Amino acid sequence: MDNSTPLPRASYPRIAALYRFQWEAAQNAYVLLFPEGMVQLNVAAGEILRRCDGKRSADEIIADLRAEFQSDAIDADVEAFLRSATQDGWVEWRDAVRP
Amino acid sequence: MSALPAGATVPMWMVAELTYRCPLHCAFCSNPVDFAKIESELSTEEWFRVLAEARALGAVQLGLTGGEPLSRPDLEQIVAEAHRLGFYTNLITSGVGLNETRMRALKEAGLDHVQLSFQDSTRELNDFLSSTRTFDLKRRVATLIKAHGFPMVMNCVIHRLNIDHVDKIIDLALEIGAEYLELANTQFYGWADLNRAQLLPTREQLARSEAVVAGYRQRIGNRLRILHVISDLYETRPKRCMNGWGTTFMVIAPDGLVMPCHAARMLPGINLPSVRDASLREIWLDSPAFNRFRGDQWMPEPCRSCPEKTKDLGGCRCQAFLLTGDVGATDPVCDKSPLHSKVLEIVNGPRPLQPAIERPLLFRTPHNSEQLIAEMTER
Questions:
Q1: Looking at chain B, which residue has its C-alpha nearest residue A17?
Q2: pLDDT at position A6
Q3: Which of B92, B114, B120, B257 makes a 20 to 30 Å CA pair with B157?
Q4: What is the C-alpha to C-alpha distance for residues A35 and B5, in angstroms, rounded to an integer?
Q5: In this predicted structure, what is the pLDDT of residue A99?
Q6: Average pLDDT, stretch A60-86?
Q7: Which of A33, A40, A86, A92 to mutate to test the interface with B (most CBs of B within 10 A)?
């Protein structure tokens, strides 16, 4: 997915198999763990990735975040984050209907 | 979990050296040269306590290494407990002893990732450098790791004798389906330091290998991520020691000593604390060993007034000690160090033309370790 491809908002993003996503109390943050490495996520990234469970489409995730943070102006930010998370290999997409 | 005091950092990385027993005898091993005298390994229950204490401090990455961690029959139990506590568990192995039964047990225990070492892309050199016949076994183990769905890091320690094979080593990593390849240029501690004359690559070799890696990175993209760790002997600025002494890493030795880095055991005047005498929290926060090189108060000139001191934090303590005899000296890799000539003598000095033939490698064996201990005692 490069920057010119539209985000497949009807598809289902999930954390890629190589990564583990968890809450770390010591850092007071969500983190992504992978072989011999870790990324500490900021609040926004944590809130988005927490919802990338393969059961919600990008559209549903965005709607959920809009409701939770009571803002309609988040679409572009969420799309940009999901795009870069996909380029980094953190997130995989599934087109199939939900199981 | 009780919070750490203000200013204290979280020891996010814990390396557990479960044993110094190892079926391989690699001439570049970073284990202490006197490992043969280190006995009385921590028990399963002691490791459980150490894991819980580390997790309470905020440790989250756990490297299970040694020696060969599979030499411990309780490895699966230790992995299961670490997984239960929420660690991300990395098994760092030669592959020897990793059969179908143990692989399945480790998967069930919750192991997250396997790092498999090769010594070279060829059977001949792999088997020569490790002083074992293990190349074919490692190939089979790689297949087993992927069959069980683990992410796999292939690790290869790089030095003068294999650095010209870097292209073939990358090909091997692609062939076995590794997600990451760690090309770790030899750091000259422990056994590698004893074999430095034979193992230090030439400047030309290093430059060629860097060009090869850059070319592959362009061609293969994200399919294989190559981590290229370069020895800093050819640089003019040192590297941070373990991201900063006592900031991020704790290494627990098989007998329970807690070290700020793998090689700290050889440093004189550092009284390493043991998990048998104190809690990890006390050790991390209050022990003289972990506080010794924190901050910049310990720094001599030219570090103390140097604008770059926050970047490299004075460099590597073990390198400073090995090359200058003073554990508190500026890392002599820095060309501002008054002792930088020590590094230049090494990198520009005469080299054997046929390294391992003119002067045989000293392999990491219990026998050689015992001889070295005897020599040290005589002196």
A1: B151
A2: 78
A3: B257
A4: 29
A5: 41
A6: 90
A7: A33
Q: Which residues of chain B have pLDDT under 50?
A: none
Each residue's pLDDT tens digit, A48-66: 999 999 999 999 999 999 9
- pLDDT, one tens digit per residue, over B16-63 is 999 999 999 999 998 999 999 998 999 999 999 999 999 999 999 999
Indicate the pTM of the whole model: 0.93
Token look-up 């919600």 returns A56
Residue A98 clears pLDDT 80, i.e. is over it: no
In chain A, which residues touch B (CB < 8 A)? 17-18, 20, 22, 24-27, 31, 33-38, 89
Q: Encode chain B in three state secondary structure.
A: CCCCCCCCCCCCEEEEECCCCCCCCCCCCCCCCCHHHCCCCCCHHHHHHHHHHHHHHCCCEEEEECCCHHHCCCHHHHHHHHHHHCCEEEEEECCCCCCHHHHHHHHHHCCCEEEEEECCCCHHHHHHHHCCCCHHHHHHHHHHHHHCCCCEEEEEEECCCCHHHHHHHHHHHHHHCCCEEEEEECCCCHHHHHCHHHHCCCHHHHHHHHHHHHHHHHHHHHHCEEEEECCHHHCCCCCCCCCCCCCCEEEECCCCEEECCCCHHHCCCCCCCECCCCCHHHHHHHCHHHHCCCCCCCCCCCCCCCCCHHHHCCCCHHHHHHHHCCCCCCCCCCCCCCCHHHHHHHHHCCCCCCHHHHCCCCCCCHHHHHHHHHHHHHC
Q: Which chain B positions have a beta carbon within 8 Å of A90's beta carbon?
A: none
Contact list, B180 vs chain A (CB under 8 Å): 35-36
Place of tokens 């240029």: B185
Judge: B180–A25 Cβ closer than 8 Å, yes or no.
no
Residue of B nearest to A27 (CA): B58
Degrees (nearest 5) of the Cα angle B357, B363, B367?
130
Residue B162 one-letter amino acid: N
Residue from B7, B87, B80 nearest B53 by CA: B87
Rounded Cα gap, residues B143 and B177, in angstroms: 9
Rounded to whole angstroms, the Cα distance separating B78 from B48 reads 7
Residue with tokens 């190559």: B226
Using DSSP bridges, classify how beta strands B258-259 and B249-252 pair: parallel, antiparallel or unpaired. antiparallel
